[in-house]
Amino acid sequence: MSVLPFLFAAEDGPSVHIAPGGVLHIGGFSITNSILYGWFCIALMTLLLIWVARRVTVHPKRGLIQFIEIGAEFITNTVESGFEDKARAKKYVPYFVTLFFFLLINNWLGLLPGVGEAFTIHGVPLLRPFTGDFNGTFAAAVITMGMVYVSSVREAGGIGKFLGHFFVGSPLNPLYLLIGLLEMFTDLTRVFSLALRLFLNVAIGEIVIAVFSFLGHILAPLTAAPFTLIELFVGALQAFIFTILSIMYLAIAVNHATEHEREHLTEESVPETMGAGSVSR
Q: CA nearest 186: which of 12, 178, 10?
């Protein structure tokens, strides 16, 4: 989402590198510009949240602390509203709050001047937004959906019971079997939908800002400023969409497990009630 080359705009046209480029080599591994900037964002986010956590008080404070508190409370309420069992919901609040701020900070820091085409090493940008790299968004989606699947299996009480919620009836019925397999395939595509949605919105915003920075030449800060403000909103929106979709994917599976447990307890309690009634008679 970045660039803001401003006065660094190229004379022969806007230059945007969609693919990441290697800038460091450690132990035979190539460290790309997006990974490097992602590490920087993680370090900054960690220090920021630790600093805020140590200054949180009963009475709300203004400024950055209040902003972090509002964001954390908003995601917390979103998680709890998606689950029928609020006690189970609280277990997943830390992950989703961290996920939201990680994506938000990466999206917003990608708008800083100097990120993108401003500074290059052998023609490769030194810094590139982590969420502007499909590898980055895909990794975030894989880890998130991995957590969703592992938690869903644990909450369901086993992989067999988890797979059972994909089928509306007995898998022995060919129609129900086909529907179940389609549901499972659709569920697996969620990894790609999460990754592509975030990546495309960030990359397109990066291209738009680069184009209007080039068209503005020496007035690049003015021509790019409106689109940069829009991307601030888009960055927050996409971080929220990624997070809330992940919450809903997990909530659907967990709520199904909760409903199954409730039905099982009801079935067990009915015979006991009938038996007690027959004894009293």
A: 178
Beta bridge partners of 125: 120
Residue 209 in contact with residue 230, Cβ under 8 Å? no
Q: For residue 4, what pLDDT is reported? A: 45
Residues 6+ away with beta carbon under 8 Å from 80: 86, 89, 90, 93
Amino acid identity at 134: F
DSSP-derived secondary structure letter, 158: S
- Does residue 276 lie in a domain region? no
Q: Residue 190 is which amino acid?
A: R
The pLDDT score that the predictor gives to residue 160 is 78
Decide if 42 is inside a domain: yes
8 A C-beta contact, residue 152 and residue 253: yes
Tokens 């689109």 belong to 227
Predicted confidence at residue 12, as pLDDT, reads 63
What is the structure's pLDDT at 3? 45
- Whether the Cβ atoms of residue 106 and residue 238 lie closer than 8 Å to each other: no
Average pLDDT of each block of 10 consecutive residues along the chain (281 residues)?
Answer: 44 67 78 87 90 78 82 90 84 92 91 75 79 91 92 81 74 78 85 92 87 77 84 92 92 71 54 50 43
Are the CB atoms for 119 and 125 separated by under 8 Å? yes
Q: Is residue 1 one of the residues assigned to a domain?
A: no
Burial class (CB in 10 A: 0-12, 13-18, 19+), 113: middle
DSSP labels for 194-210?
Answer: HHHHHHHHHHHHHHHHH
CA-CA distance, 171 to 186, in Å (whole number)?
Answer: 17
Decide: 178 and 111 in contact? Cβ < 8 Å. Answer: no
Full domain range(s) for residue 255? 6-261
Domains identified in the chain, total number: 1
- 244 belongs to a structural domain: yes
